[in-house]
Design brief:
Layout: E1 2-7, E2 11-17, E3 22-29, H1 36-49, E4 58-63, H2 69-80, E5 85-86, H3 108-121, E6 125-130, E7 133-139, E8 145-152, H4 154-164, H5 184-211, E9 216-220, H6 224-228, E10 236-237, H7 241-258
Parallel strand pairs: 1-4, 4-5, 6-9, 9-10
Antiparallel strand pairs: 1-2, 2-3, 6-7, 7-8
Helix pairs in contact: 1-2, 3-7, 4-5
The site of potassium ion has 5 residues, from loops.
Binding site for substrate: 107-110, 184
GO molecular function: ATP binding; metal ion binding; pantothenate kinase activity
Pathway: Cofactor biosynthesis; coenzyme A biosynthesis; CoA from (R)-pantothenate: step 1/5
């Protein structure tokens, strides 16, 4: 079975793919100090507690944090006796190469989102990922990643507000009932929630104008369902998008190997 690992700047998600479906998905805070042994203790206890029967013998990793890849590789080598594919490394082929400025290292999560979005919806697509950063990935007609937008993430913005202004508390993002807040917390939540809805709508409008053609919009990432409640911008919200892309990229590389 395939172990697919999606490491973002905040959370790392592990999913087990049995060839037909994901039989388990677990999430751990991203921490570059975590060792292979620690990952394994965590993974194997979850497998035992949930009675998940899985013989893992293949792995694929996408990581926006380069430093964690070493220990994830050790995990795969030592405990699953396999060499993981690492998205973004030369030995990991993509169905279509990205078309960006020379020397640009596109975040592997964005490449994976592009592959998954194209598989599910075809080309001319915008994938919005509400992760640590809020990213917009533009997918061309043939499925190539051709660029996009990186904006500060929602929680990052709230954190910055709290850090920079003495009178502003730490607050969690939620959908406020009204745009006009009648207390400090409600005002901050409104600024971030409706601010990000406006950001997403505005950026998508601008991208569509530059591309001058119909483009679907797919949202993913931890906070996507919350933002879907405030706008009809998204054609769909798919929390398994990155995992789906990892399975596709793994399959693509296996096919190349046996061809
Ligand atoms: N279900 C949730 N409810 C509220 N916040 C969430 C939820 N899931 C994730 N988050 C927050 O959303 C942000 C993005 O999460 P995630 O998509 O896991 O980011 P990344 O991929 O960059 O690690 C993080 O700040 C995280 O704390
Ligand atoms: C933009 C990102 C920080 C988003 O990461 P995430 O929010 O998923 O942790 C990541 O995709 C990245 O480090 N990108 C490199 C630059 C680029 O994609 O052009
Ligand atoms: K991500």
């Amino acid at each position: 079975m395939l172990l697919a690992i999606d490491c973002g700047n905040t959370n790392t998600v592990f999913s087990i793919w049995d060839g037909r479906e994901f039989i388990a998905t677990w999430r751990i805070a991203t921490d570059h100090k975590r060792t292979a042994d620690e990952y394994f203790v965590w993974l194997s206890s979850l497998m035992m507690l949930t009675k998940t029967e899985a013989q893992i013998d293949e792995a694929i990793i996408s990581s926006t944090v380069p430093r964690v890849v070493f220990n994830l590789r050790v995990l795969c080598n030592r405990y699953f006796d396999c060499r993981p594919l690492v998205v973004g490394k030369p030995e990991c082929a993509l169905p279509v190469a990205p078309r960006v400025d020379q020397g640009t290292t596109v975040g592997p999560d964005r490449l994976v989102n592009t592959v998954a979005g194209f598989d599910r919806h075809g080309g001319n697509l915008i994938v919005v990922d509400f992760g640590t950063a809020t990213t917009f990935d533009v997918v061309d007609t043939d499925g190539a990643y051709i660029g996009g937008v990186i904006a500060p993430g929602v929680n990052l913005s709230l954190e910055a507000l709290h850090m920079a202004a003495a009178a502003l508390p730490h607050v969690d993002v939620t959908k406020p009932a009204t745009a006009i807040g009648t207390n400090t917390v409600a005002c901050m939540q409104s600024g971030v929630y409706w601010g990000y809805i406006g950001l997403a709508e505005g950026i998508v409008r601008q991208i569509r104008a530059e591309r001058d053609r119909p483009m679907k919009v797919i949202a993913t990432g931890g906070l996507a369902p919350l933002f879907q409640q405030g706008t009809d911008l998204f054609d769909s919200v798919e929390d398994d998008l990155t995992m789906h892309g990892l399975v596709l990229i793994h399959r693509h590389n296996k096919e190349l190997e046996t061809a």
